[in-house]
Q: What sequence folds into this?
């Protein structure tokens, strides 16, 4: 029987999903393999009738440069009962599957290892290789390498954010913009910097103080006050949704939002508009100030996940896809595929990225102390400093409460 591989995609989409899948398929097909694309993530492996598509070269060649994911994605996380009672071993045996390729985040990678271990116990030898993705750019890859999808998502987010900024300038308003990023502020910081926003708020900024809603609002007001002093009547505040992830339960209650949680225990931030919540709070806080401006919310979220990949991710994801074949032929398994600075394909192992105590991969945050990040804070953003106190008294009676560095305890 012809040797086969199976590919599945887990988690949420990112630009380049189809590039990875298409490149894997084209490479393996050209080398005599049958390629099966599984729909529904891991759900298909625990179903008697899995939904799958056999990928031929023409199909792979059609999807590789498209946005979204041809393979239907899922955050499904199998339980131990699923492994004990529902695992479809016949699917692997009957299709002579030699390799399981997973595309997703660390949760998807961890489950792949569970599947491989389970199959080994059943005396079915199979390799498993994972392609890490997230538009959040928060996986701790070596050499500060970006995760695939981040560059394309950032580019589309910047297109939206610059249009919003132009609207602010045109109408003499302020906007509160929230960008995706569950555990790190890479997207918000990258988009906000590219769009020259006068205030960017990300969780990493609170390295010397606790994140509270009051501080977030005061940082926003600090920028509005500073621009008012400068005679600039418009602007935009970029806030990473990750600040919600770091708020205490008491602070979350103050926001008035009740979160639901996904199968991996993460709050489903995509169900609520963080921009709307913050804009309402900011508008209420401004009622006692001598500043008249309108506040409008804009959410940058699902709009950037399924766009067509830009050239960077088309090349990067093609190399990752071809790299899967390279590692497989070298006998590698239980690893992540990584392209190093030299352009070589090398394996990364979960155990080398995971926290030895929790078993979780710690997120890679924005390096708040790096020169290029500090330059943005010092030169691009607008906020109240001690030198502004006297002028700021025209708008607020207590300008020191809006001092950017005092708020953050920097």
A:
């Amino acid at each position: 029987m012809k040797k086969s591989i199976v590919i599945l995609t887990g988690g949420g989409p990112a630009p380049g999903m189809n590039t990875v899948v298409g490149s894997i398929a084209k490479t393996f097909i050209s080398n005599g393999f049958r390629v099966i694309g599984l729909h529904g993530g891991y759900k298909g492996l625990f179903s008697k009738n899995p939904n799958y598509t056999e990928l031929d070269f023409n199909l792979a060649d059609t999807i590789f440069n498209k946005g979204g994911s041809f393979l239907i994605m899922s955050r499904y996380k199998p339980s131990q009962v699923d492994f004990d009672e529902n695992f479809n071993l016949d699917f692997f045996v009957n299709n002579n599957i030699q390799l399981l390729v997973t595309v997703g985040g660390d949760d998807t990678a961890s489950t792949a290892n569970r599947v491989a271990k389970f199959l080994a116990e059943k005396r079915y030898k199979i390799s498993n290789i994972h392609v890490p993705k997230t538009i959040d750019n928060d996986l701790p890859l070596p050499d500060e390498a970006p995760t695939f999808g981040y560059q394309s998502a950032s580019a589309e987010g910047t297109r939206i954010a610059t249009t919003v900024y132009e609207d602010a300038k045109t109408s003499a308003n302020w906007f509160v913009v929230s960008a995706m990023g569950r555990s790190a502020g890479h997207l918000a910081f990258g988009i906000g910097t590219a769009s020259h926003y006068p205030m960017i708020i990300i969780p990493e900024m609170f390295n010397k103080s606790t994140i509270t809603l009051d501080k977030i609002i005061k940082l926003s007001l600090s920028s509005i006050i500073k621009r008012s002093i400068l005679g600039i009547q418009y602007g935009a505040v970029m806030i990473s949704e990750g600040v919600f992830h770091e708020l205490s339960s008491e602070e979350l209650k103050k926001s008035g939002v009740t979160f639901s949680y996904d199968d991996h225990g993460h709050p489903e931030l995509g169900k609520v508009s963080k921009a709307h919540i913050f804009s309402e709070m900011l508008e209420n806080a401004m009622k006692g100030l001598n500043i008249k401006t309108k506040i409008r919310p804009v959410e940058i979220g699902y709009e950037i996940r399924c766009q067509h990949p830009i050239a960077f991710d088309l090349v990067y994801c093609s190399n990752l896809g071809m790299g899967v074949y390279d590692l497989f032929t070298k006998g590698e398994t239980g690893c992540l595929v990584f392209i190093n600075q030299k352009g070589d394909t090398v394996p990364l192992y979960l155990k080398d990225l995971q926290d030895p105590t929790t078993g979780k991969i710690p997120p890679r945050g924005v390096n708040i102390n790096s020169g290029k990040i500090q330059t943005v804070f010092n030169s691009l953003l607008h906020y109240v400093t001690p030198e502004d106190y006297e002028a700021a008294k025209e708008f607020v009676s207590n300008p020191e409460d809006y001092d950017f560095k005092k708020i953050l305890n920097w």
